[in-house]
Amino acid sequence: MSMQWTGVMPAITTPFDDQGRIDHDFLAEHARWLVAEGCSGIVGLGSLGEGGTLEPAEREALLTTLVRAVGDQVPVVAAVAALSTAAAVEQARRAEAIGCRGLMVLPPYVYRGTWEEQRAHLRAVIEATPLSCMLYNNPVAYVVDYSPEQIQELAQSCANLHAVKESSTDVRRITALRAILGDRLTLLVGVDDAAVEGAAAGARGWIAGLVNAMPRESVVLWEAAIRGDQATVDRIYPWFLPLLRLDTVPHFVQLIKLVQARVGRGSETVRPPRQVLVGGEREEALGVIAGALRTRPSVQAAE
Fold this sequence. Notes:
Largest sheet: 8 strands, parallel
Structural class: alpha/beta
Shape: globular
Radius of gyration: 18 Å
Strand order of the largest sheet: 1-8-7-6-5-4-3-2
CATH architecture: Alpha-Beta Barrel
Distance between the termini: 27 Å
Order of helices and strands: EHEHEHEHEHHEHEHEHHHH
CATH topology: TIM Barrel
Number of strands: 8
CATH superfamily: Aldolase class I
Number of helices: 12
Low-confidence stretches: none
Strand content: 5-15%
């Protein structure tokens, strides 16, 4: 199966049991459900997947479960992020051995460094395997902002860099990247509440969060945005936006898992140092979720 960086790809959450261990049975069932609802790939071990809290053996076990669960239906993409270049390269090679079809390459953790250092790190990871790679640009979360010119430089030297997940929250970056790169890289939206705007600007994929709880609405919305079906966008997007905005705040992991729990698609359990939400933030989120469920539109697999 060749890697196609298009459609709606869940940044899948990592389910934990009441002992804090990965619930592999639920993970497999959840991945299969997301695919059945129309998702075009599964991205594991990202920020939403709490990948930074997992031990190497747990990371490999999680990817193995995902690959076995979806088979050849859709590709599994592994997020690669580590403190050192050597560790990131090893993650990439292990993901290839397990059967992942693509890599989502993050900046190195903690040490920011110069562009020259960043470039060397990214090239080492991208060139460590023949897998198709997507660069993850998220200056809000990782305090590293790859400019269109830097991404162009990386693309010129790395033949298997095929995509960019743009999470700067500024959809003008999509336009700027298209202007400088043309069709060299496929662009994907990385923040939920910019999906429609990103599609209009030229993105062809969406690495999504709330899709973990509401895949059908996510897929129908994205496909409508891509084909310019404004009537469907206008019917779904205003309803969906309050939920999608939960993906853009510091407690996004807890909030998305809370939505999952409320729709019967998982639990709120997170791995420390994260804690389940309490107090005012939780009550406000529950109000948003309840309102959305009361007014949830009826959508079909394709409109």
